[in-house]
Hints:
The complex is a heterotrimer.
Chain A: E1 6-17, E2 20-32, E3 37-41, H1 48-55, E4 64-73, E5 76-77, H2 83-89, E6 94-97, H3 111-123, H4 127-140, H5 146-149, H6 159-171, E7 177-181, H7 189-206, E8 209-214, H8 217-223, E9 226-231, E10 234-240, H9 241-246, H10 251-258, H11 294-302, E11 308-312, E12 317-321, H12 322-326, E13 332-335, E14 338-340, H13 371-382
Parallel strand pairs in A: 3-8, 3-9, 6-7, 7-8
Antiparallel strand pairs in A: 1-2, 1-4, 4-5, 9-10, 10-14, 11-12, 13-14
Helix pairs in contact in A: 3-4, 3-6, 4-6, 6-7, 7-13
Chain B: H1 2-30, H2 34-39, H3 45-55, H4 65-71, H5 80-85, H6 99-134, H7 139-153, H8 156-170, H9 185-216, H10 219-226, H11 231-260, H12 263-268, H13 274-283, H14 287-315
Helix pairs in contact in B: 1-14, 6-7, 6-9, 6-11, 7-9, 8-9, 9-11, 10-11, 11-14, 13-14
Chain C: H1 20-34, H2 36-54, H3 59-63, E1 79-81, E2 88-90, H4 114-150, H5 152-167, H6 170-181, H7 185-190, H8 194-204, H9 207-220, H10 224-231, H11 236-272, H12 283-293, H13 300-327
Antiparallel strand pairs in C: 1-2
Amino acid sequence: MPEPLLELRNLSVAFDTDRGQIQPVRDVSLSIFPGQTVALVGESGCGKSVTAMSILRLIPSPPGKVIAGEVRFSGRDLLSLSEREMRSVRGKDIAMIFQEPMTSLNPVYTIGDQIVEAIILHQGVGSAKAYKIAEDSLRDVGIADPHRRLQSYPHEMSGGMRQRVMIAMALSCQPKLLIADEPTTALDVTIQAQILELLRKLQRERNMAIMLITHDLGVVAENVDVVAVMYASRIVECATVEDLFDKPQHPYTEALFRSIPKLGVTVDRLDTIRGTVPNPARFPLGCKFHPRCPRTRQLAEQSPADQTVQIVTSDETFPVLKRCKGEEPLTKEIQPQHWAACHQISGYDSAKVTLAQLNHRREVTPTVIDPATQISAAQEAGK
Amino acid sequence: MLAYIIRRTLWTIPIVLGVVLLTFTLFTLVAKDPARMYAGRRATPEVLESIRHKMGLDKPIWINVQAAHESGFKGLFDSQFFDILFFRFAKSMRYDEGVGTLFWRKAPVSFAIQLPVFIIELGCQLVLALLVASYRGRWPDYVTTFVAVLGMSVPPLSIYLGAQWLLAAHWKIFPVAGWDVGFYAVQFAALPILVSVVGGIGGGTRFYRTVVLEEINADYVRTARSKGVASREVLFTHVLRNVMIPVLTNTVTALPLLLLGAVILERLFQIPGVGNLLVDSVFNNDRPVIMATTYMLSIAYCLALLLTDICYTLVDPRVTLG
Amino acid sequence: MTQATTSMPVFDSTNRAAATTNGLWLDAWRRLKRSRVNLICLIVVGFYLLVGLIGFLPVLETKITNTVGGSFDPPPKMMSIHHNPFKIEWNRKFWSYWNKPALWFGTDIMGHSVFWQIIYGTRLALTVGIVASLISMIIGTVLGTIAGYFGGWIDSLVIWLFSTFNSVPWILLVIAIAAVLQTHDELNRRFSGLPTVIVALSLTSWIGLCRLIRGEVLKLRDRDFVVAARAIGLNHMTILVRHIVPNVAHLIIIDFSLNIVSNVQAEVVLAFLGLGIIERPSWGRMIDDAKLDLLRGVWWQLTVATIAIFVLSLVMNILGDALRDALDPRLRGVG
């Protein structure tokens, strides 16, 4: 088995706030192999972005700090590098693009200056050569008239264009891993499809690994090889994209799927997940999902009273299983190559805790079709 | 660009008129008999009348219909209001000199003190703010911010008095007060400059610190760091350029104040600048000087604000023109 | 998540007024009192208010004019240190002054008690600070809200007004207003110069608040809760008072607390220029009086008045910052 390019081992990150310490990332393990696309999926506030930022050690410190775990990249532990060594990793080996193309570029410098900054820093070339490289990378991301565009300021471009500039900037130094933090959320649907297609194309050409952070399951179904689902700062399920969409194990993943409309299936109203994402300052005890979990509610109704306990949320009172409220499940390999963290999956107790490693590549055609995919596919075909 | 400058300049006209109106309202409509205030209680009616004439108070307030009858249309504007509007100030009562000449004689002295103060202060404040902001949440930040608040809380007058007593009167490092012509002014300028910087540095540092902190948390800083740029580098290239925008406003609008000088400072150290002239005039009820200084400096200030807006376009590419 | 129900208290980020009763101000207060420094500052402010009230007692008028000792009697010495710093000579009589507060801080040139002057000065400083800040708060709030809410020519007029006032350098405006008002000497004599000081300071300190509120109201005007209030037919006055002003109340309070400091400090400047309070010992006048006496070694008047201003300014600055942190919506919420 080849070595993973990036490996997170039991990573935990804490933030000091004036209401005490919170942990937006707890015990997260994840591997990414060269050329692979791994998605980190979850609702906003579940810790996806903090995980990504702590890989590059970009979390503001204080108040944030990594309190446990390792981030191994090509065999090196990034957390033990000096700041100077870390700087040569950022932008060169691992690049990152962000959600907000509107604010992520410095408004007072031309985009040329901003792309060239990284090139000069990491490739040791002169300014003229660097501008040439910058021009090429703008051309690679499909920007027309790249020579003239180097002189433009960010505010003179549209959102999609700016995200292309961000990608050009990130890829100008040929990184081995690209972390894309919700790269298409702020863009409209047509542009989303174009940007994702662009990323796929560049990935194929350069054998680059991508860590895609998103909350859009349509994007996941269409683009990625391996999916890790995050809930309340933990990874609750991790599997290949086919596996996960075929037989989701965790009740949260199931609920996520039920909240997407399906083509050809008529329903009166879509299922939603009850309640809201808990605030990291006030996580419930036990399984963090139990106040919203349909599975434990259903099982509790069929179980003897001594195994259940009543819980009160803001609008209702209902029984859940004692174990779900009392004990937090670990992320275990409940089936070969399928990790999940839920007491109520058959075989959970006998399963082992292992590090999630999946060197898997998807089939070229998407195995799961959902409407979002079709829309973007149609739009791509149309253009 | 030109259209923008023209539009912005046109907007200055009502403001200048507003300043005229404000000055006029204050000194002519609200003030009680300035001639009597200057002459004192026991002045005879004849003396009072001559003072009134000298101050131009014998003219009508708004328009001079009588003068228009006598000497044609232009005479209509020979009134108190238009005297202000057209810069026709009366001579200073105390110095018997035109306010303009008086002002230009005093202004360089104020400038000689204020310019070094301004440059040293701004430089220190910016560097401190950038450093402190890069140490945010750690002890250098807390210590500097706390010292800045301490400094802001002491009345500047007490700092000046204390320094004058300790450094000049007691230790005799500097002369206590006074002024000299030409190069010899340096020895007299040193202490005022020093205390002025000490008294003013805290507030600005704190202000710029908030400005810098706002920029440091901006998304583009994160982007730059993710490219592998060192944090100090990010601070002095990416952040500083963005911080310059509010700095510019403060800087350009402060320029006319350099001519005004620091009122208390000049009075205390007996520096014959504009600020001192102003205080003198207040004590002597020298109305023409107070009025003229207020009016002229306000207009200079207006123009500086105009200049600031135009300078924006040089620093911030987002400001769209036209 | 259309059906999403809340299991956590969620702050309504658009209408702060709606949250007034159940959390916002309470939460702000909880944040404020969590720091021990803030609590100490609050106690100090309370102490100043108490001393200021004592200053209003009629007996003070005679206390500040009574001669309690010789000219420039220094405060009692606790010890004297000679050339050998290890040989401290304790002043045995030091503790015998405990029941003569009038002599604690020494006397001025006329032999009047500096202690009672400071107490009387507290009364004057707080009167100037609070009244001038209140007036400028009212001017700023009224002009700012109507300009932002109604827009159009009213807005233009208010912008013109504050731009005009802003075009006159602060110190010039204060001096000009005070110099002009000083000519009304009967009124000033009756209230020991207070009207001049208060009017001059309140007319110069409303601009910042007015501009701030106008900008904020401009943003609030098109928010859903204001549009909804208009849709159900509430009149402008009700909307302004019930929905707009409570939503900018935090700005008003922060500005008010910081304005008190700048007004107390500005009184010193006016006193130095001879435009301040007359015939009564304000802090500014005490510092101003000290400027010549200092060279004769009379340090106590200056020191005591400076400390009085310094401590008040310091605690108000800290509280102002704490208020800003506690009330600023951008800083609230965790995670």
